[in-house]
Amino acid sequence: MDLLSLPSLTVLSDCVTIVEQDNVKIVRVIHDKAVAGIALHGGHVVSFQPTGQEDLLWMSKKAIFDGKTALRGGIPVCWPWFGRLAAPAHGFARSSQWQLIEHRENEQGVIVVLGLDSNQQTRSVWQHEFQLRLSIEISDSLTVRLAITNTDQKAWAFSGALHSYLNVADVRETTITGMGSDYIDSLQNDQWCQGGETLTLHDSIDRVYTKPQSHIQVQDHQRQRTLVVENQGHNSAVLWNPWARGAQSMGDMQDDGYLTMLCVESTWHAPSIAAGKVLPPGETHYLITRITA
């Protein structure tokens, strides 16, 4: 998406403005280090383009900006569950309206903080009290930090992911390392598998890597750059690409969209909501991803 072409609705500072794509308001950051966009719908990072580089994030050309549908691409916030453990799939955070809490800037970059608290709408889906704070640090690299706080009187369990879609020139000409060898294959009925330490894609993939290294590298050979994804607060890393058949089945992805994207996700994976990470009252858990070229 072309953030620079969108007219400003509100000017918040020298670097931060509010713009709108169809029915979705976006916090636009224009800084010497990078240009970025964060949609208030879903608390969703839609773009991060370091100065002089291609965007590090992939957005579908057919993403639906109606303020209701979860956006396809960027970094969706999947919470309080990941996958199809309940409805809606991947939880409600990615289709909820977040609030702009604060923004700060200096010569090193910009920090934008969004918030989502439990409310009547969230309780109709998930009957727990919570506070989410999403901190997005925009500099030479992109750091997304989801702070999950239990504001309830009792413990509850969750799973989730920062579902990063990386932008590559041609996914068939990428090499992935650092994800480890042990994985659960969602395309083989959650079978436990073991693979090599290096991965090149030739078909669809939907894997939960259970022993990833702290840094996963995606070598984008055509662009002669390596995308480095550093995750914290996770118990696994998910790699996903729907390939041609999957892309054609999605109304919000162009048929050839799979060729230029690869998801590498910071994930707290669980087979059910009850089996998720237990968070006692008053405690906070951080799920973090940092993406660098």
From TrEMBL:
An example of a Pfam family matching this protein is Aldose_epim
Per the UniProt entry, the Enzyme Commission number(s) are: 5.1.3.15
Sorted UniProt keywords: Isomerase
Question: Which branch of life, at top level?
Answer: Bacteria
- Which BP terms from GO are recorded? carbohydrate metabolic process
Instruction: Please provide, alphabetically and separated by semicolons, the GO molecular function terms listed in this UniProt record.
Output: carbohydrate binding; glucose-6-phosphate 1-epimerase activity
Q: Which reaction does it catalyse?
A: alpha-D-glucose 6-phosphate = beta-D-glucose 6-phosphate
Instruction: List the active site.
Output: 163, 265
Key word Cell division present: no
Alphabetical list of InterPro entries matching this protein:
Aldose_1/G6P_1-epimerase, G6P_1-epimerase, Gal_mutarotase_sf_dom, GH-type_carb-bd
Q: Which family does it belong to?
A: Belongs to the glucose-6-phosphate 1-epimerase family.
What this protein is called in its record is Putative glucose-6-phosphate 1-epimerase
